[in-house]
Design brief:
This protein is an all-alpha fold and 156 residues long. Helix content is 65%, strand content 0%. The chain is elongated, with a radius of gyration of 22 Å. It starts with 5 loop residues before the first helix and ends in an 8-residue tail after the last helix.
Length: 156
């Protein structure tokens, strides 16, 4: 004598698998965030250094550089845009402070954007810069050349 239909058991099993998969994905991203908070050899974590460079360079930002930063992070999905903006701004701020100039320039923004973007996203970065008419040629050496080459059609 069955107490529940077969479809109900499959339904429960399906949602059990979905729950485990989603928890695994969430745990993976939480673990990555945890690794960024761990202190390095100098006693500061990656997030501490990002906050340091953002705060140190805050007076160097003008309206044009802020607008360019907003334009550069515009393709990032809304859920991740603030985090991406902060890490890119930290890289740009570090470049501006170390260069000794009194403000954040367009060159700092483009170079910092390229340096802060993960190598796996360089192909998209190049297409985004090209579509917006932004010249990145002085910083082409920073791009991962092998991964940014467009795929060639197979030779027959």
């Amino acid at each position: 004598m069955k107490s529940s239909p077969d479809w109900f058991m499959y339904f429960i099993a399906f949602w059990g698998v979905v729950l485990v998969v989603f928890m695994s994905i969430g745990g993976f991203f939480m673990f990555r965030k945890f690794l960024k908070v761990l202190p390095k050899a100098d006693g500061k974590s990656k997030l501490d250094w990002q906050n340091h460079w953002v705060e140190l360079s805050r007076p160097l930002w003008n309206d044009e550089s802020k607008a360019l930063l907003d334009k550069l992070v515009s393709p990032v999905p809304n859920a991740f845009r603030d985090i991406a903006k902060h890490s890119i701004a930290a890289q740009i701020g570090q470049l501006a402070v170390e260069s000794g100039e009194g403000k954040v320039t367009e060159e700092h923004c483009i170079k910092g954007y390229i340096m802060a973007t993960p190598k796996r996203d360089h192909a998209f970065l190049i297409s985004f810069l090209d579509s917006n008419g932004i010249d990145y040629s002085p910083y082409a050496h920073l791009l991962d050349a092998e991964k940014t080459k467009p795929l060639a059609p197979p030779v027959v």
